[in-house]
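We were asked to recover a plausible sequence for a given structure. The inputs and outputs are reproduced exactly as logged, with field labels preserved.

PROBLEM: sequence recovery
POSITIONS: 291
GIVEN STRUCTURE:
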């Protein structure tokens, strides 16, 4: 009997196959049927055994993928008391506190749901908020994709690369990325209107970017607003090429087009969310965390 059985959720089938391969484990796919009213019906295409790993990202459609993840974990619990929920991208992690009066801390509810359906352990890649991580009531591990992303950029012939965080809040991520890449980093000062969502970059003295290739680093890119503002600002400082990199590329609507129009040469993300920018594989860090 295999030590692990890996169940591939509808949102993470290819990544789940890679994890199963690395763990030398049996892989069982799932079949998804979506009814006209939007309901999901998920069916396992095999009978799992041993410890079970459910791999399902909670990216858009977030609510549907959340329900599918919960359904898979619940079904897996019928076969094993050890069910690992691997959630490469955890939706709702931004809702980790009450920013404005009356706002619901939804990630707290999500955490309770995973416990209630029988998950014994959770593994997440680059969670948006460590505060959100602390709300889970079962063993939960956050793993980083930064080393895998850095490995990709080391293969490129960049001109005097500089790592840039689009806001002060991401400075630790940029510092870590720069340390692994063997270069330096800076952080721009972003201002966001909490009610309108409008983003602006505070003007400053950034002569150190002139002529250098830049890597804009973030944990996720959703609408791309922050990256667009940062790229437009940095282009005015006469920098070299600009790359945008993140773990999770949501790229909602025409975000990718806007980012390219702002002067970004390439967007590089991981396969936590399937898509053409998701060229960096996170299965090594997930497999390591499991084994």
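RECOVERED SEQUENCE:
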């Amino acid at each position: 009997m295999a030590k692990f059985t890996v169940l591939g959720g509808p949102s993470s089938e290819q990544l789940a196959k890679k994890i199963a391969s690395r763990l030398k484990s049996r892989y069982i796919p799932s079949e998804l049927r979506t009814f006209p009213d939007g309901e999901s019906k998920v069916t396992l295409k095999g009978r799992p055994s041993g410890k079970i790993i459910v791999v399902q990202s909670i990216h858009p459609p977030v609510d549907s993928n959340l329900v599918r993840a919960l359904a898979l974990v619940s079904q897996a619990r019928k076969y094993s008391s050890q069910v690992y929920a691997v959630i490469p991208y955890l939706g709702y992690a931004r809702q980790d506190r009450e920013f404005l009066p009356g706002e619901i801390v939804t990630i707290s509810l999500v955490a309770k749901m995973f416990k209630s359906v029988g998950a014994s352990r959770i593994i997440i890649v680059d969670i948006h908020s460590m505060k959100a991580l602390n709300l889970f009531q079962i063993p939960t591990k956050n793993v980083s994709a930064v080393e895998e992303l850095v490995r990709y950029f080391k293969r490129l012939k960049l001109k005097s690369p500089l790592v840039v965080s689009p806001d002060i809040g991401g400075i630790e991520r940029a510092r870590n990325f720069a340390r692994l890449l063997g270069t330096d980093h800076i952080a721009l000062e972003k201002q966001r209107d909490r009610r309108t969502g409008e983003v602006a970059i505070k003007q400053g003295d950034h002569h150190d970017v002139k002529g250098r290739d830049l890597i804009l680093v973030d944990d996720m890119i959703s609408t791309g607003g922050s990256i667009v503002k940062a790229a437009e600002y940095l282009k005015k400082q006469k920098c070299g090429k600009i790359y945008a990199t993140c773990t999770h590329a949501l790229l909602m609507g025409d975000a990718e087009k806007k980012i390219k129009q702002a002067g970004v040469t390439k967007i590089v993300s991981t396969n936590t969310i399937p898509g053409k920018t998701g060229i960096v594989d996170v299965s090594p860090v997930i497999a390591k965390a499991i084994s």
